[in-house]
Amino acid sequence: MKNLLKNWGETIAGSKTRWVTLLIWIALVAVVSVVWPQVNDETTGGSQLLPEETMSVEASDIADEQFPNDAGVPLLLVWHRDGGLEQEDLQNINTLYQNLDEDPLEYQSMIPPFEELPPQALLDSASGDEEALTTPVFFSEEATTDDLQPVLSNLQKRITEITGENYFDTDLAEDGMHIRYTGAVGIQIDSTELFSTADITLLISTVLLVLFLLVLLYRSPILAVVPLIGVGFAYGIISPLLGFMAEQGWIVVDSQAVSIMTVLLFGAGTDYCLFLITRYRDELLMEPNKYTALTKAIAHSGGAIMISALTTAAGLFTLVAAQYASYDRFAVPFSVAIIVMAVAVLTLLPALLALLGRTAFFPFIPRTEEMIQKLEDKKGKKVRRPKTKSRFSEWVGRITVKKPWTIITVTVVVLGILALFVPRINYTYGVFDSFPDDMPSREGFAIIGEHYPEGTVAPMQVLIRSDREVSLREDIAALDEVESVGEAEKGEENEEYEQYSVTLSIDPYSREAVAFVPELKNRVEDRLQEEGVKNPEDQVWINGETAGLYDTEKVTSRDQNIVIPVILVIIALILVTYLKSITAMGYLLLTVGLSYLSALGLGWLIIHYVMEEPAMQGLIPLYSFVFLVALGNDYNIFMISSIWKNREQMKLDAAISNGVSSTSGVITSAGLILAGTFAVLAVLPLQVLVQFGTVTAIGVLIDTFVVRPFLVPSITKVLGKYAFWPAMKKDPDE
Fold it and tell me: Is the pLDDT of residue 13 over 80?
């Protein structure tokens, strides 16, 4: 492998071929950017994330067929005034709907005849306290979010002209009139606007942070820019490649996946760059020829980089086994990004380093001892020798072989205590729980929830199919969690179908409401069985947002049970193949698993007690597991491979001590950069990304500063020659 990588280095980064490599990359980026669309142009805003066979999706399909609603997609206008709506407010609503009737908005499909209702009749439709009134405007289902954004701006402008005030930007805590929009259209538009600014903010924040950390860690302005150039070129291939795949319908990409992919690319991509750059610097201290030093660096670090990238890509690709679309949509983009970045590190980066040579490290240029002596003779004074290892890294290398049991006991106890908080985590899958409190559609939704029965904001529909007359209204209404039940509706295409609209007496997004879904379904099934309906479990469906949350919890739990074992098996096979040690594979996976659980526990403490969030987003555990297990093993592979190579020439204690101290600097730098890039997700307004960034950043820091430098080498020391089983390596002098 070393000879193969050495030959590879000479091929792509020689004195003549370095220019060819660079030109090939430039040509590739130029061609694919022109021929294929960018990934951001192919993102989908589709909100259907559940598989077709889940109950709520089947119920929705049946409802569309048997109980069609031709009105269109609703935008809900929420009118609210503390103390009660006034006559002027009601007249303004009349005027608005008369305006919409005479001059419809673009894509407007239907409006209720509110312009014909007298003020008192409108007030009868308001909440019980007469402080809030919700009025809908329906739009064509063919209209996209981009189509409706200017339409909503036009509507706000009309309302402001009619009322004489802009009630959309008022503070809800203040008295007076407030107007907010919500409903399907309002939520879609708010989501799109959040991401339209978030992507730019995320990109700028990530680049600035990585640049700052690189300058701080390596004190070289040129070296700080080189990895960013590599990442930029890689993105120049990744974006159109994913855009092409999405255009062909091979994959589905959403804005959330693109945002996290950007973070992953800068974090993991910069890490791979640092692995090669650090080795190149070490080689330059011993080798006067920069090309020879570069080929040696590729030969020594290329294998670890390839295995790390393969492990990460394979781990992330396991998400393709998930049924929930938010997981599945991550698999291909993330895996492609990692593979392309690894190719860039082993092709483009060596070419750039070959062009820059020692200048890349200015002002702290690495030189051989002979070169330093010549420079001292020329200057007539001593020149500072660069340090390849810090005192701290040397101390860490020594302490792991001197007190391994102490380190193992302390770290396992501390990380274990943090892991004990995992079972106490509260989870939520509600769409609004991920949005900022001041988002218009969330504020509008909150007003409805405060002034109408709690279940009004998201009613459920119970659908049944029966070949005999069965009245379920009284049975459903008798349940404690139910506020009211509408009259049964017969199916238009098949009268065997019936639908009941159910308003809950509890918060439809609460865990209590989600847990009520199977109870309600079972109650209806029992009633049908009493009436002699065959196979009642196949004749009952529940539709609505609460049912969707129930299915989401079911599907994501299933995904965790599938994806977690699959990723562990894949990474285990890669580790065994590379390290040729079953024992090492076992304890590496166990330590990363412990790191993950402790990060999740500590993340919950921060999210719940510092950020004051009542619940963690339900998607976080699997998101974080996949990233931390895949990325955490990167550092373990890089460090443990150093120990394995040292073991061929020195005793175990020296191999461990030297392996830890020699990789400490680069892995610490890489860990700080990776954790920093994930922490940048905190600048985004979506809680799911903020929480994901928080937990993942914590996990990376635990891996970087606890698991990799202390726990893993200490376990290796305790196991001794059994750490290499079945190879069972002996000391070189035995």
Answer: yes
| pLDDT at residue 308, rounded to an integer | 84
Nearest to 202 by CA among 683, 672, 685: 683
pLDDT surpassing 60 at residue 576: yes
Residue 664 pLDDT: 81
Token pair in block for residue 612: 């004051």
Instruction: Give the pLDDT band of residue 195 (cuts 50, 70, 90).
Output: low
Q: How many CB atoms lie within 10 A of CB 657?
A: 24
Taking the C-alpha atoms of residue 24 and residue 27, their distance in angstroms, rounded to an integer, is: 5
Instruction: Please report the sign of the dihedral spanned by the C-alpha atoms of residue 208, residue 214, residue 217, residue 222.
Output: negative
Report whether pLDDT(185) > 60: yes
Read off the DSSP letter of residue 385: P
CB 155 within 8 A of CB 135: no
Q: How confident is the model at residue 616 (pLDDT cuts 50, 70, 90)?
A: very high
Task: Give me the phi and psi of 502, to 5 degrees please.
Answer: -120, 125
CA 256, 614, 698, 684 torsion-angle sign: positive
Which tokens go with 111? 């409006």
Asked if residue 592 lies in contact with residue 632, where contact means CB atoms within 8 angstroms, the answer is: yes
Bridge partners of 463, per DSSP, are: 499, 541
pLDDT at 152 over 80: yes
Residue 46: per-residue pLDDT: 59
Among 166-180, 184-198, 486-500, where is mean pLDDT lowest? 184-198
pLDDT in tens, 469-490: 888 999 999 999 999 999 999 9
**First-to-final CA distance of the chain:** 27
> What is the residue type of 53?
E
Scored b (16 or more CB within 10 A) or e, 261-297 reads bbbbbbbbbbbbbbbbbbbbbbbbbebeebbbbbbbb
Q: What is the 3-state secondary structure (H, E, C) of 428-492?
A: ECCCHHHCCCCCHHHHHHHHHHHHCCHHHHCCEEEEEECCCCCCCHHHHHCCCCEEEECCCEECC
CA distances to 198, 200, 460, 677, 687 from 683, rounded to whole Å, are 8, 11, 35, 11, 10
- CA 375 to chain CA centroid, nearest Å: 51
Q: How many helices (H) and strands (E) in the chain?
A: 23, 11
* CA angle 140–143–147, rounded 5-degree value: 130
